[in-house]
Structure formats: C-alpha cells, structure tokens
Amino acid sequence: MRSCGFYCVANAPHFPGAVALLNSLRLLGHHEPFTLVDAGLTDDQRDLLSGHVELLSAPADVPPVHLAPYGPRLRPADVQVVLDADVIAVRPLTDLIDAATAGCLVGFVNDPPNHDRFFPEWADVLGLGSMRQRAYLNAGQFVIPGSLNARVLGHWIDGQETVGMRGTRYGRKARLSDPFYFADQDVVNALLSATLDDDELDIREHRLAPHPPFRGLRLIDSNALACAYPDRTRPYFLHHTMGKPWLQATRRTIYSTLLSRLLLAPDVTVRLDPRQVPLRLRPGRLGSVDLRRADIQARLKADARRRLGTFGIRTRLADRRRPFGVQP
What we know:
Layout: E1 2-10, H1 15-27, E2 34-38, H2 43-49, E3 54-57, H3 70-74, E4 77-83, E5 87-89, H4 94-101, E6 105-109, H5 121-126, E7 137-145, H6 149-163, H7 184-195, E8 201-204, E9 218-221, E10 226-228, E11 237-239, H8 254-264, H9 285-310, H10 313-321
Parallel strand pairs: 1-2, 1-4, 2-3, 6-8
Antiparallel strand pairs: 4-7, 5-11, 6-7, 9-10
InterPro entries: Nucleotide-diphossugar_trans
C-alpha cells in the first residue's frame, strides 16, 4: 500500500479545477500519487492528464457528489488526502500528513453559520449508535489515515446510499433545516460523530481552509502560492464553494488570481491552452478588462440575491426551479 496519496473527483465541467489542484500540489513539492475518479471527463481531458494522474472510472449509477470516498477505497494509502475539485493548496501539507500518520483524521470546520450543525435524528436514519456533538466539518478536504478506512469509508458510502437525493439540496423543496440538506457532508459528519473518539480527530479552524470571499487574506507571492492573514497565519487550502470562476462570472478573489497562474503559467505540471479557459482568466489587457466586468457582474448579482432573500422570494424561486438531479 502506498504511503500517501491525493484523491479527487471531476467531470468535464470541473476539469479546470482538478488541474489547478494538481498543479498547486506539485508546485508545493507534493509529488505523491494523485488519483482522480473520472465522473465524465472528455477524451481530450484524459489525454492531458495522462502520465500525471491515475484515472479511475466512476462506479455506475453513483451520483458525482457521492464519489469522494471511492478513490481511497479503491486505491488505499497509509495517508489519504481527499480534496474537492474546487480546492487548491497554498502551503505544504506536511504537518497534516504527519497528524494522519499518527492516526488522526484531519478535517476543517465549515464556515459559519453552519459550523455547529447537528441533528440527533442522523443516528436513527443511518443506524448509528450514540453521537458526540462536535464542530461541523466541511467535506471538501479530509486527511484520512488508512488505519481508519474500515470505520469511515464503508459507512460513508452506505450512508450516502441510504439518504439518496430527496431531502437534500440536490432534490426538490429541501431546506437548510432538513437533517440531510447537505447530503454527503451531513452523512460524513454524522458517522464521524458516532464512530471516532476525540483523540482520533484533529479539527482545524475554518480560516485554514476558507471559502469566498476569503476575508482578511492577502496574497504575498503568487509564484509560491503564498497568502496570509494579518497575524501571519497561512491557510493550507482555498476552497471556492458555490459558483466556480472557470464556469461563471464570480467576484475577483485570491483564488481566481491564483487560478490563472495555476492553469496557464509555464512552470505547472499540466498547462492548459489559454483558449481552454474563459477570457477573464487569461493574461493580458483583454483578460484584465473581462475580469473586472465579471467582478462587477458578480457583485450586482450577489446584491440582487440578498434583496430577494430579504423578502423571502429567493427560497420560493429555488424550490420552484430546482431540478431533481445532481451536479458535483
């Protein structure tokens, strides 16, 4: 069994994110095996990744949002770093890997107000025993010791199958107050609260794997992917939840700045052709102009969403329009 491995899931639309993740790890000196569960890449995308990652075909009939545990289950390692395709690493992960080597599962607290989410009914639905309420972890980044696989991965997969899609944000008319609104993330938090002791968890604060708009973070050196808070604390990851900068107009952030560097710079492992990314992510004057346009568009849209939410319209529209299906 390999000593350490990195794991991710991607389909064709999320290919740029997976490439950025891979390139960030390699630039930081992490050359451990990278396993990618292929949830629908194109042949051209597979060709670009050839020789750089191990591709695993996704199991049939498993929704992309349920695929995260399959990589380490099929290609186990002593330490398994499981990351979403909208995550990039921005500092070496050595101490996280060391913590997992010592037997602790490492996770990061989810962003407020969903940092203390807990439902006693998780236990009945999933057939779990007594649960300990702890900080609610984001499922976008876990460092899992292989020694815990039997107690974590199988229950994670089984729990997702039990819950399915209805009653989650990927189904119809689900609300945040529903126990499994966050689907796979609620499942994994439930099982960790029931199956792991306190000394088997290493819980890191949210600011070490923050979400947009990455408040307080300053870019120090784009070549080194270095960013820090005013107190000089450096995060391990940037996690671009919600809209993806390569798929839609989003606010300009540290992540979007580093994304261009990670996809197009000459020193990356897998370099994309500028024509493979939106104009706003390309270098040059036209790219800068389009990036400013996208930033303004995203700010106006966010303001409109806040106004809709104020009058209770947003939730009703979402319930009416949400299709029954999933996207990763």
